[in-house]
Amino acid sequence: MKPVNLKQLAGELNLSVATVSRALNDRYDISQPTKDRVRELARKLNYEPNPYASGLRRQQSKIIGVIIPEVANHFFSLVINGIEEVARANDYHVLFYLTHDDHQRELSVARLLANGRVEGVLVSVANDKQDFSHLEALQGRGVPVVFFDRVQEETTTAKVTTNDYESSYEATRHLIDNGCRTIAHLVVSKTLSIGKRRMQGYTDALKDSGIAYEEELVVYAQASKAQDIEAIQALLLKRPDIDGIFASVESLAMSSYEACRNLGLVIPTDIKVIGFSNLETASLLDPPLTTVTQPAYAIGQEAARILFQAIIKNTPIVATQSIELKSELVVRGSTVAEMVKL
Amino acid sequence: MKPVNLKQLAGELNLSVATVSRALNDRYDISQPTKDRVRELARKLNYEPNPYASGLRRQQSKIIGVIIPEVANHFFSLVINGIEEVARANDYHVLFYLTHDDHQRELSVARLLANGRVEGVLVSVANDKQDFSHLEALQGRGVPVVFFDRVQEETTTAKVTTNDYESSYEATRHLIDNGCRTIAHLVVSKTLSIGKRRMQGYTDALKDSGIAYEEELVVYAQASKAQDIEAIQALLLKRPDIDGIFASVESLAMSSYEACRNLGLVIPTDIKVIGFSNLETASLLDPPLTTVTQPAYAIGQEAARILFQAIIKNTPIVATQSIELKSELVVRGSTVAEMVKL
To answer: Are A100 and B108 in contact (CB < 8 Å)?
Structure first.
């Protein structure tokens, strides 16, 4: 007897092909009686799933996709390790895709992944556009998505973030408490959620200390490291009263070190520097860098846990599953003179 | 008229299905007369390729896969950028897979990739086994493979490497020229090609300077950073005459800095340190690290170029396409006292 296909099953049962497929895949949105009816007939007619049907290929791939901006930043290499630990425990492989903050590439790879290759996707978004329709498209095709760190604020899915506002407030207060009055803020992006929250923490800390916010003291990341260093140097030359730098990402803290060295400014005597960073060598720098250290490994673990729950239980991910983890201020020699030589 | 499939075409032509498929895909190993015969019949019978047939899916995926040990090492983040530049120029996406030096995972993902998802693979091998049959399996399924940096010596495909022996010899000589007589060598792996070549450069440089090789001075990478630091400290305590450290990978150079600091040893006064490294912050360390800097970006570009030539022209990759690029010795304060404060 020739094996039946999904369409024939659907015809016999007077159901849509999609419903029959979802029933066979034990999806959450199909009632138990319907699942029972479909399975009974499938057994009776010796239905065998076609391994080339795209929906089933996705079910069987045992792969999740991770879309991240870059890997040179230590934050993301730690996140990756956290994700992989959970994936391995679930016997899944992880494929990574780097967007280099290019929205177009993010869009293009999301479509590619939606095309049946992965069972779920973790995303830290690129930073230049506010169009996230491609990620909704992934969800629309039944591929669960979890955002982490650089998230879409208005999403209906879960997000794993850190307390960016509070830790940015604390970092700025740390500089003020150590005598800084004119604090430059180096920002990764005007449009990214993390950029906005970190900026708010900075401005509120200034206000609460009676220090006026000056737009001139805010520098945004440029297209290259060389341009970052140049922009920081230009600001330091224009405003020799600057006595503190708060970098909202690791690369800008490193560019600050180079800019200060080029100008002959001594950290922390002439100027104090603090940065968001997961740099393993922070304590080996000259001077050791004071950091806001994000729980990067835990972010990867938590995001992956939420994703695998959805994959394995066939349930949708909802915004209420979102988690906020806490970052830690690690004080070193770049903000406190007596800590330079330990 | 019902469309014909590959099998029917093959039957009519008295050829195998594989031959017909390869003829339609313009593969190099099918003769022109056969290609012409197959195509003529395909046109006549309105043959349409089945997009779900695995061979064709591979042809159309526009994805290459890259298998690397890790991303925390700056060498690999630069290689990634080089690969992506070439892939973008060819309008391809790049998916990455990290083995964490686990041979079993490398084997498992190679099988997964062979299963029709990517059109080519670039590999830097994991370091604990000498079994590379899974990579040959990729080639056997028509997926071209290029090795880079951590390569299989006996492979029949192309390799992109650096002059590990010469640069290791030069690094060791640099320490000797700066007064070191008891030089520890920290090695990434006993079995990896790069580990062996770097070890040979070290021992030959010692011999040519009339310094005896001592097995006790060689330390292999441990399972964790904490264990690396402990092993280095143990050696430095046992052999207080050690006046130089040559680390064959970046992470071991950083662990040497931490070990020296823990023991109160001052670099470069008490002990000099040199390491293979692409660390962006090498010049910001205390003291700045003297490095053997590999042309990581170019390695990625060259490996990708060889791969895309094979993908686009449908030609096999041969060992004679292998390339060796040159590394550079960058002298900084960790080996020369007067360079500590620039």
So the answer is: no
CA–CA min distance A207, chain B (Å):
33
* Domain A164-294+329-339 falls under CATH 3.40.50.2300: yes
pTM for this model (two decimals): 0.81
- Contact (CB, 8 A) for B294 and B162: yes
CB contact under 8 A, B108 and A96: no
**B98 part of contact set with chain A, CB < 8 Å:** yes
DSSP string, B281-305: TGGGBSSPPEEEE--HHHHHHHHHH
Q: Whats the size of chain A, residue-wise?
A: 342
Establish whether domains B6-50 and B61-160+296-325 are of one fold.
no
Range A6-50: architecture per CATH: Orthogonal Bundle (1.10)
Q: How many CB atoms lie within 10 A of CB B336?
A: 17
Q: What would the mean pLDDT of B4-15 be, rounded to a whole number?
A: 86
Which range has the worst mean pLDDT, A263-272, B149-158, B235-244?
B149-158
Question: Using DSSP, how many helices (H) and how many strands (E) does chain A show?
Answer: 12, 12
A80 touches chain B (CB under 8 A): yes
Q: What are the tens digits of pLDDT across the range B282-326? A: 999 999 999 999 999 999 999 999 999 999 988 889 889 999 999
Instruction: Please give the structure tokens belonging to residue B76.
Output: 């690999």
CB pairs under 8 A between A and B: 88
Cβ of A74 within 8 Å of Cβ of B72? The answer is: yes
Query: Does B284 contact A287 at a Cβ distance shorter than 8 Å?
Result: no
**CATH topology for the B61-160+296-325 domain:** Rossmann fold (3.40.50)
The answer, yes or no, to whether residue A117 has pLDDT greater than 80, is no
B287 reaches A (C-beta below 8 A):
yes
Residues of A in contact with B95 (CB under 8 A): 65, 95-97
Q: How many Cβ atoms from other residues are within 10 Å of residue A315's Cβ?
A: 13
Of residues B195, B197, B173, the one with CA closest to residue B272: B173
- pLDDT of A280 reads 87
Residue A19, CA atoms < 13 Å, CB-side half-sphere: 18
Give the CATH architecture of domain A61-161+296-325.
Answer: 3-Layer(aba) Sandwich (3.40)
For the question of an ipTM over 0.95, the answer is no
Q: How far is CA A28 from CA A24, A135, A142, A308, B82, in A?
A: 11, 21, 11, 15, 44
Contact B312/A at CB under 8 A: no
Give the homologous superfamily in CATH for domain B164-293+329-339. Response regulator (3.40.50.2300)
- Token pair 């407030």: residue: A169
List CB contacts of A285: < 8 A, sequence separation 6 or more. A257, A279, A334, B281, B284, B285, B286
pLDDT category of residue B330 using cuts at 50, 70 and 90 = very high
For chain B, how long is the longest CA-to-CA vector? Answer: 86
Q: What is the pLDDT of residue A195?
A: 86
